[in-house]
């Protein structure tokens, strides 16, 4: 069984197990719990307190802003997973204890199992024919290690650019005051002064034209 087939099998097993566990609890709950519904039991439960007033009230807009900012700055965590895989595997590949070419018992050369596994997990071809066709084994190993080291530094540069873009967006949101639950009066005053100055400037341009 290949590595990709094994991974898919594990994912399917995890999915079936999760859905089966949830479905089993729902079925058992419907069979075991008493079914004696009445008017009070069917009322909306809210923290054990009696319902006061209507539930159709205007929700504070600031909660939406906080939720949107959380989604925007938290969803980037998903981008760390592929980067972490490539960075980790390339770091392992660049280590000296991972042999690219090994000697078999009959004296022939073959690709090391660790190298083959790392290349498969990275989704890269092993290129076995070209690696085993040269004469200098040390030179061929050095070329692979050099390429892996370059990939490591590329990953570091990539995550640096990612964090730079993220920090620019964070600084912009912070500068606007969107992270403040209650915006400062001085900020409102500066915004009001800027809007009045822009209005006077626009009025002057219109009157001169």
Summed up:
With 209 residues, the chain is mainly α.
Identify the notable features of this structure and list them briefly.
single chain, 209 residues, mainly alpha, two-stranded antiparallel sheet, 7 helices, 66% helix, flat
Structure description:
The chain has helices at residues 3-32, 61-74, 80-94, 113-122, 128-131, 137-176, 185-208; strands spanning 101-103, 109-111. It is mainly alpha-helical and 209 residues long. Helix 3 runs antiparallel to helix 4 (113-122) and helix 3 runs antiparallel to helix 6 (137-176). The chain has a domain at 1-30. The model has no long low-confidence stretch (mean pLDDT 77). A two-stranded antiparallel ribbon has the order 1-2.
Give the distance, in angstroms, between the N- and C-terminal Cα atoms. Answer: 79 Å
Total number of strands: 2
Give the proportion of residues in helices: 55-70%
Q: Strand-residue fraction?
A: under 5%
Low-confidence stretches: none
Please state the average pLDDT score: 77
Counting helices, strands and paired strands, the structural category is mainly alpha
Spatial strand order of the main sheet: 1-2
Rg for CA atoms: 31 Å
Write the element-wise H/E pattern from the N-terminal end onward. Answer: HHHEEHHHH
| Broad shape | flat
Characterize the largest beta sheet: strand count, sense, and whether it forms a barrel. 2 strands, antiparallel
Q: What is the count of helical runs?
A: 7
């Amino acid at each position: 069984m290949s590595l990709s087939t094994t991974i898919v099998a594990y994912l399917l097993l995890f999915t079936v197990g999760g859905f089966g566990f949830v479905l089993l609890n729902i079925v058992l709950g419907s069979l075991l719990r008493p079914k004696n519904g009445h008017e009070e039991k069917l009322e909306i439960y809210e923290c054990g307190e009696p319902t006061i007033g209507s539930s159709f009230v205007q929700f504070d807009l600031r909660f939406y802003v906080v939720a949107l900012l959380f989604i925007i700055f938290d969803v980037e965590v998903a981008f760390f997973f592929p980067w972490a895989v490539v960075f980790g595997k390339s770091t392992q590949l660049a280590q000296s204890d991972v042999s690219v070419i090994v000697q078999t018992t009959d004296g022939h050369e073959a690709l090391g199992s660790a190298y083959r596994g790392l290349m498969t997990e990275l989704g890269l071809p092993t290129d076995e024919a070209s690696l085993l066709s040269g004469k200098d084994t040390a030179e061929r190993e050095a070329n692979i290690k050099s390429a892996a080291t370059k990939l490591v530094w590329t990953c570091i540069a990539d995550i640096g650019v990612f964090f730079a873009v993220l920090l620019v967006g964070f600084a912009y949101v912070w500068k606007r005051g969107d992270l403040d639950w209650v915006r400062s009066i001085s900020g409102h005053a500066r915004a009001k002064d800027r809007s009045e100055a822009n209005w006077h400037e626009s009025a002057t341009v219109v009157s001169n034209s």
